[in-house]
Protein 1
Amino acid sequence: MSIKLNVLDHVMVPDHQVMSADEVQALLERYSITFEQLPKIYHDDAAVKQIGGKVGDVIRVIRQSQTAGIAEAYRLVIRRPKK
Amino acid sequence: MPSPKRIGKITFGLLSPKEIRTMSVRKIIWADTYDDDGFPYPQGLMDLALGVIDPGLRCKTCDQKAADCPGHFGHIELAKPVIHVGYTRLIRKLLRVTCRSCGRLLLSPDEIQKVSLTADDELGGEVLTEKDIKKERACPHCGELQLKVNFEKPTTFSEVLLEEGRKSEHKLTPADIRARLERIPPSDLRLLGINPDVARPEWTVLTVLPVPPVTMRPSIILENGQRSEDDLTHKLVDIIRINQRFKENQDAGAPQLIIEDLWELLQYHVTTYLDNEVAGCPPARHRSGRPLKTLSQRLKGKDGRFRGSLSGKRVNFSARTVISPNPNLSVTEVGVPLSIAVEMTVPVRVTTHNLEEMREFVLRGPERRTLRDPCGANYVIRPDKRRLRLGGDNLETIAEQLEPGYTVERQLRDGDIVLFNRQPSLHRMSIMAHRIKVMDGKTFRLNPAVCPPYNADFDGDEMNLHVPQTEEARAEAAILIAVQENILSPRFGGPIIGGIHDHISGIFMLTHDLRWFTKSEVLYLLKYGEIDHLPEPGRIDEDGTPRWSNKQVFSMILPSDLNMVFRASSCVNCDECRHVDCERDAYVRIVDGQLVSGTVDKKAIGAFDGAILNRIIRRFGMDRASRFIDDVTKLSIRAIMIDGFSFGIDDEDLSRTEHGQIEEELARAKDDVERRIRIFEEGQLEPMPGRTPEETLEMQIMQVLGKARDRTGEIAGRHLGLGNSAVLMAVSGARGSMLNLTQMAGCIGQQSVRGERIMRGYEERTLPHYRRRDRGADAHGFILHSYKEGLSPTEFFFHAIGGREGLVDTAVRTSQSGYLQRRLINALQDLKVAYDGTVRTTMGRIIQYHYGEDGTDPMKGSFGDPVDVKGIVESVLKEEV
Ligand SMILES: [Mg+2]
Ligand SMILES: [Zn+2]
Ligand SMILES: [Zn+2]
Ligand SMILES: [Zn+2]
């Protein structure tokens, strides 16, 4: 029997959510950017795997911020390139 | 303007012989350059088809004049192939991993599978190395026995033959090598990380050599009319000569020995043509004995193309000289020597409105003998872009021609805005815009209050000055880069410009406790400030002389509705603060622009602290703040001159009582140390948790001796009051600390290496002056003398040991942090905050969705917080909060 660790439960790991297609569309419009201009996150990132993010998904990361209290960031899931 | 294109990918490959011939416009066969008439030989190294450098001639390839022709490549057909020195390591690897007969990789298909499992996408996987090939001697494909390949610098390859147990070397000619490389199949090359479509390995052995255009190796004509050729041309001449001789000998059927010699000679010339600093190869030299600067030398090193010409371009309209201080200048100004001001210019367009003024500039010309002379002009640019140098007899004629559409390059004059810079430019305040003040002398002058952002001092520092040449640049300089816009550091949101050294000593001496000045003294102090009228005198003596207090004098330079309360640098954090009644006068209270109590010192006006300055910036803006800095620096310099300020050896004198006390204190400490050592040696020492008895003893000794040193400082400090300059500087925060004074007058104390007493040296002792295993204070670097008394020889030695550590530390730290800084700057330099508040790269890629996550400018915040709430409340309540 194995108990899998949920990384999101750790205090140091911020909340990750997979965004819906509509949300992503709104995001791209809000910043008037293309998909490519989003910051990236690897598909095998522990938190991405936990929430079931797939390559091409956009992840919303909700962080505790020293300056702003709560800060949101958005990252595009990409394949980790081989060395 | 064409829209910028995005680069999808860059492919690197080798130049194939075919490509070299295709791009060549002329086959070069003659080693000669110019004939007797100075005309280029056809098919020589200066052939007109390779481009032109002489004005008047036209290029045979593109039919353009010297200025427009970019130059064109030619080529030399080599008699025999030669190795390209830049690829010897690749050649060595390929010879060692492939079969000498069939050219295939020395691995069976299974092994390839194993080694290159990760290589599922093209060229992306692990690349095979020499280590992946086992030292086996037979090819798995054809069964051929493999031989060891030796490589000798710079370009010699040989095979090791084993004959009857004896080893013998057999040299491989470049032709042999080329033949072997040709046999390697493309599929095997991909496994080796080589894309055979753009880089066949045999192309690393040259059969044809490109001849660079003359435009990149121009000949220069010396004063005596002789031509002097470029180093590259010299080298190419050598190559062609040998190549020619080689061919002739080859055709004549010369003996093998001669052919080999010539081949090696050709190899040498081609090698040094490519790189004249190869190991194991004597550099080719000029007739004078100077090594030639060939292709690789043009690129490499500090003065090479990358670091010298691309990253480190020199600019026009800049000046550099030594800096020196001038407290009478405003912080926003810079003093510029007249000789620089007449040399540098600002372009001014002539319009109908300034036509007369411009005429005057032109009429005055470049001559300007004294500071009082108005500025002239050095050049006039006509509407057809022709630049006319002013001088001599052409002033009147050119002034006459002047009309709208012309541009006059006038000399610098007072008030011109310039950029001022000191290297290393580590933060943005390393370049600030100042207003010029033309001065006598040969140095740049600046107010010492702007030294902290530049990290400048006057021990020979030099600085650079740049003159913006367009209206846009000047506007940007005035609005964004001006000194007064950079008083606050974005690093910590507080002022980085402020009083230093004597400014702080002076203002401390002026404002400490209560003093009364006569009218003439007050006027002396405030002479250079913009003071319109004196306030009511604070006191009238019995004889009727009006007097003003020192605090009143300082209040004159404060904005009239400033309110604040804080504790000065001299505050010692008494257990119970007595506020206005503080016996050190360290409780600063300003009500409605009047200094009610407290001493103004580093905390109030110093660089990096500057509480008053900071409040003035927030309440009254940058311009008022820079005026305050100017006023405070001038006032403090005047104040320090009332009493005078100096430091001499007798300022470290103590009386006999203090000397006795210090001696007693040190003797007591020594006894204490010896007692603890005895306890330890008897095995009675109780170790501290997690420490051995030795460590415990060491810590106790350090502690005892440290305390003793501090106590001598206290004894010295009791004797030396604020009347002592060193004490005053330490208390006010101007320079130094009480520790420095302790070491000068009391006792220097323990010298340490890596935080421990000095333990290194001889066997079981630091110096032969001590017994082995002596654990005493003096045997391990405790210095009980002061700098004033002087050190004993052993003490001096220990001091040198401790001092060396500090020097090494700083040297290592600066180089490490410098490298770290460079890497950060390179990674961040092109990021900018877009209008929507995001931080983006030049490609518009997002780095942060909101600058700093809260979108606030750290410079506009207050020491890390977005809003200075305390300051606002204080200003309203006029009370401490
Ligand atoms: Mg210096
Ligand atoms: Zn041309
Ligand atoms: Zn083989
Ligand atoms: Zn106090």
Protein 2
Amino acid sequence: MKTIYKTVIGVIVMTIVGITAVACSSTKKGYTDVPDTATAAAEEEFKIEKSGAQMWGEACNRCHIAPSPADYNDTDWETISLHMRIRANLTENESKKIEEFLKSAN
Amino acid sequence: MKKLLVLLIAVVFGGQMYGQTYNTFEPSKTQFMLRGYGHTGFEYMDSGDETESTFLGAAFAPIFLYKHSDRLMFEAELEFVLEGNELETGLEYADVMYVLNKNMIARAGKFLLPFGTFMERLHPAWINRLPNTPLGYGHDGIAPSSGIGVELRGAFDLGGPTLNYSVYATNGPRLKDGSEEPEEAGMLLFQNYEDNNLGKAYGGRLGLLPFSDSSIELGFSAYTTANTGQEDSEYEDVGAFLFALDFSLVKQISGLGGIVDVKAQYNNSNVDTATYFELEDGVEEEYSFDNQSNSFYGQLSYRPTMASSDFVKKLEFVGRYSDFNAPEGAEWEEKSVQYAFGLNYWLSWRSVVKLSYQTTETEGGHDGDGLTNTDGLFVHWAIGF
């Protein structure tokens, strides 16, 4: 039963630290509001042809933090893309698009 | 004289032309990358009557990636760890991979097994959000982590959702029949690099990402073998069936100002019942038990990536629950529950300082009966390169 207390205390401490840290940091409003209809329209567009950049943001964050395009050169990105396609079981399309984006943006 | 001049010109210009072709630097078709990671740390453990504090031996794991062509690739990872004063080396994996077509990739060699996702995808120190593995993994764990054999894997685009699969055949585990370590009779040893019987282990994983933003993945894995014991021994036909369920959610949630990451995996191991022997006051006694084990972990982490402060952006808050149940009646009978909390600071996408507090309640286990409560404080540092 002691663990329950420890858990509760742990969670409370983490929550307080977390909320304080975030609250103190975001005094200014970081992002402008986008009307819902605009987001919906943008999403619709993405569905037709999702960009490599978006796929990178989504797929490469799933296991580890996604590396930035500038972290590696084109040659390295080719090796990494093949490695990740296999290790992470990505589809060929995903890995091709992401590779193109990474090589174009570094 | 004229001839000599022409020859001279030819040599000079020819040489230049040769030099020029030589200098038009074409990227080589084959590529070699040396990557890897290292980690080190400090631990303080308190289990009531025993306290321990130690700096952990640094670990260094170089990874070799060789891309021969767009289809053929080789990967290998060596692991160097200090255990006491000894340098321990290990070959985490070494396999060739060949892209057969859009949806099929073959692998052969020693590879990390897709039994759930933790061992294959999340255990490297620079990926794992906490300094250690959840209960049920690693040494004496019930989930197989790697195997020697062949595998076929791939992914399908379902027009938004995606489906991925892998199927493999490996040497499979070896049953500890108690002849060497009686207190571990009935455990499966997955480090079985030379098969002790003709039966192989077969397994696979099916993963589904139901949403087009890849935010959620659900996985089911199975692993089965008909023979785990030594060939021609009474244990040869002891079979085993293991399965795992895994879940992953990674999503940037504007309302929360950051990225939420949820990971969970349930493992279940079922080994056929067999009769083992124990020495009780010099007399050999038979015993048997229902050889079922299971373990579970659930982890929640949050990174305030939308915070305006650069410092806060790099923070991460983690909580993890894990439990482990080893069979009742076995010499290694155990029930453990662990809560782990962590605060991480990400120096880069592959370099992190982890601070963690963990509390573990163990009933039974290797160290005997009774209840032990262990509190641990960890400071770890991991870097990928």
